[in-house]
Design a protein that fits this description.
The structure holds 2 protein chains of 2 kinds.
Chain A: H1 2-27, H2 33-38, H3 45-56, H4 64-72, H5 78-85, H6 89-104, H7 109-117, H8 120-152, H9 159-207, H10 211-221, H11 233-249, H12 251-259, H13 263-295, H14 308-316, H15 321-356, H16 362-385, H17 387-399, H18 408-415, H19 422-441, H20 444-447, H21 454-471, H22 478-492
Chain B: H1 8-29, E1 42-43, E2 46-47, H2 48-85, H3 90-112
Antiparallel strand pairs in B: 1-2
The chains are: A mainly alpha, B mainly alpha.
């Protein structure tokens, strides 16, 4: 029953993907690279909120999120902090990125940074950081969703089927629909898995026998999970730092800042994203994860906490597994397609156009972009199906997002601090990168003082290097400062008073 | 609509919003450092640590409201006018005009509601 229902649901969703992809293809300007990668910078409130929301929240929102509440208790309360706070960065950085993107026609993060600093090394480093953030996470996301679908259907839908089905859908929407198709699909998918989370939270309370009964049972079983322990703050704030900044600095979210049709749309999206993230995603996850402790005091051996929601469904409402399968597909696909298109834009703009063929016409760039979507799909397929490939990427995927903190200093130099220099930006990224890698993957991490993690060390080194090197190197030209800071100062320092 | 310059009242509003947000973040951090509200006793509908934390996280949403209504919206209403007036060439002027039309439409829809 679950297998048949899942197949019907997945097929129905695939049909929607086809229709949306076709409509977006019809509306799009096929030879225009800005249209393909950024939906002609014309997204309205619904599409922008939908794509911000669904791109940021992967299957993690309804598997990993509740699972970590179940496993870590209060240690995961920051899930609400960074998801309500992160969207406010649209006010701090987003509108500046939008203004510059619109004026100078930027497509990737490296476009903006390289255009200001005029440093090939910065462009390449940015492109490398973007790919590190995007590709390993996309692979793990793909295999995670495929495994979830296999698990929910007790192996009736095999792993390879999940991988192929998701990749086929993602390739369709990314190749034909481009950014517009992805944004429309994201809005639909975000709505779907948001509703599923709300309904699941209600179900969990019902299964627990009521609101207070559910919480009381959980407190009785594990009171420790409801209070903070000593020494947890360092790790807590390391995670909060990178996941808050990620709302603007990971490449696929950064590019969404370019996509807004107008500043009012950006502002509304900021407000809606902050509220919806806190209450639709994190608060429902909190209810599910905490109350589940009273319902399932311990997990079966060898089962990860991510499986808490599927376990609850299989125990109390087996047929509901159908919705989990579809939601896993929807949530995974909505993140994966954005990562895929973003990775393709990075390779097309930052490597092909910037290094190989600077005079490439727009139509050619759009064509190359589509070709790289195909290349990335093939690479994802190989890495997802070969265990050795996953073994290679898992360590990178788990820390991928943390690399976004390295983009903060150079961005501040472009949009806030006139004293920044190209050497300062370059060395801050390079040294920050080296320290982050060393503290993450070598014994050096264990030797560092305090409880903060690699992302914080990389961040600190990056900021200090940026300021110190900028102080002792040649400032940017007056012309460049006027082009960026002059323009922003005039445009930002306005109000109705 | 005449374009006005960055005003003192706008700067005051910005300082107020930033101060409010910092206050909210500081309050939300109290249980993390086990200063206050780190308890399993019920406080309203939830155990105290969770109630306290989410109360202040809701404060972040309030800060988002303040940012939008006090800062973002007034700025956005004015900036398109300015950009269209100060465009360096006709093509750019046309681009900013288009964006302004989008914004005007969004505002009008909001007013109609």
């Amino acid at each position: 029953m679950i297998v048949a229902g899942s197949l019907i649901g997945l097929t129905a969703f695939l049909l929607v993907v086809l229709i949306v992809g076709f409509l977006a293809y019809k509306k799009g300007i096929r030879s225009n690279v800005t249209d393909y990668f950024l939906a002609s910078r014309g997204l309205g409130v619904v599409a922008l909120v939908g794509t911000l929301f669904a791109t940021w929240f992967s299957t993690f929102a309804f598997l990993g999120g509740p699972g970590l509440f179940y496993k870590l208790g209060t240690g995961w309360l920051l899930f609400g902090l960074f998801n309500s706070l992160g969207p406010l960065l649209i006010w701090v950085f987003g509108r500046r990125i939008w203004l510059l993107g619109k004026k100078y026609n930027f497509i990737t993060p490296a476009d903006l940074l390289d255009s200001y600093y005029e440093h090939r090394g910065i462009r390449l480093l940015t492109a490398i950081i973007c790919v590190i953030i995007l590709f390993p996470y996309a692979t793990i996301q793909l295999s995670g969703v495929a495994k979830a679908i296999t698990g929910f259907t007790a192996g009736a839908l095999p792993y390879w089927f999940g991988v192929l089905f998701i990749l086929f859908s993602v390739a369709l929407i990314a190749y034909f629909g481009g950014a517009r198709g992805i944004a429309w699909m994201d809005a639909l998918q975000g709505f779907f898995f948001g509703i599923l989370l709300i309904i699941s939270a209600f179900f969990v309370i019902r299964w627990a026998g009521g609101w207070f009964e559910g919480w009381s049972a959980a407190i009785k079983i594990n009171p420790e999970m409801f209070i903070f322990k000593a020494g947890a703050s360092g790790k807590y704030y390391t995670l909060a730092l990178m996941w808050t900044l990620g709302w603007v600095l990971v490449p696929h979210l950064w590019q969404r800042m370019y996509m807004a049709a107008s500043p009012v749309i950006m502002g509304k999206s900021m407000l809606i994203a902050s509220i919806a993230s806190l209450w639709v995603i994190t608060f429902t996850g909190l209810i599910i994860g905490f109350v589940a402790k009273g319902l399932v005091p311990s997990l079966p051996p060898g089962t990860d906490a991510d499986m808490i929601l599927p376990i609850l469904y299989s125990t109390f409402f087996p047929i509901g597994g159908i919705f989990l399968v579809i939601a896993a597909y929807a949530a995974g696909m909505s993140t994966l397609n954005s990562q895929l298109l973003s990775a393709s834009s990075v390779v097309t703009q930052d490597i092909y156009k910037a290094v190989i063929h600077p005079e490439a016409p727009e139509a050619k760039q759009a064509k190359i972009g589509r070709m790289f979507v195909g290349v990335f799909v093939a690479a994802l397929l190989i890495f997802a199906l070969i265990p050795a490939g996953q073994a290679l990427l898992i360590p990178l995927a788990s820390v991928g997002v943390s690399y976004c903190v390295l983009l903060l200093a150079p961005l501040v130099g472009v949009v806030y601090w006139k004293g920044a220099t190209r050497q300062g930006a370059f060395w801050s990224m390079l040294l920050g990168f080296i320290i982050l890698v060393l503290t993450q993957f070598t014994p050096l991490g264990g030797m560092m003082p305090g409880t903060i993690g690699p992302a914080y060390w990389g961040f600190i080194v990056s900021i200090v290097t940026f300021v110190v090197v900028s102080r002792f190197t040649q400032p940017m030209s007056e012309k460049k400062i006027e082009m960026f800071h002059g323009f922003l100062t005039k445009a930002i320092n306005l109000s109705n008073g | 609509m005449p374009v006005k310059n960055y005003s003192k009242s706008y700067a005051r509003k910005r300082k107020f919003v930033v101060a409010f947000l910092l206050f909210v973040l500081a309050m939300a951090a109290l249980p993390v450092f086990r200063i206050y509200a780190n308890s399993t006793d019920f406080w309203g509908p939830l155990p105290m640590t969770l109630s306290w934390t989410y109360l202040w996280y809701a404060g972040i949403n309030v800060a988002a409201f303040l940012v939008y209504f006090l800062l973002f919206k007034p700025w956005a209403e004015n900036v398109m006018e300015f950009l269209a007036q100060n465009a360096e060439n006709d093509e750019e002027k046309e681009m900013w005009e288009k964006v302004k039309l989008t914004d005007d439409l969004v505002m009008k829809k909001e007013e109609d509601k």
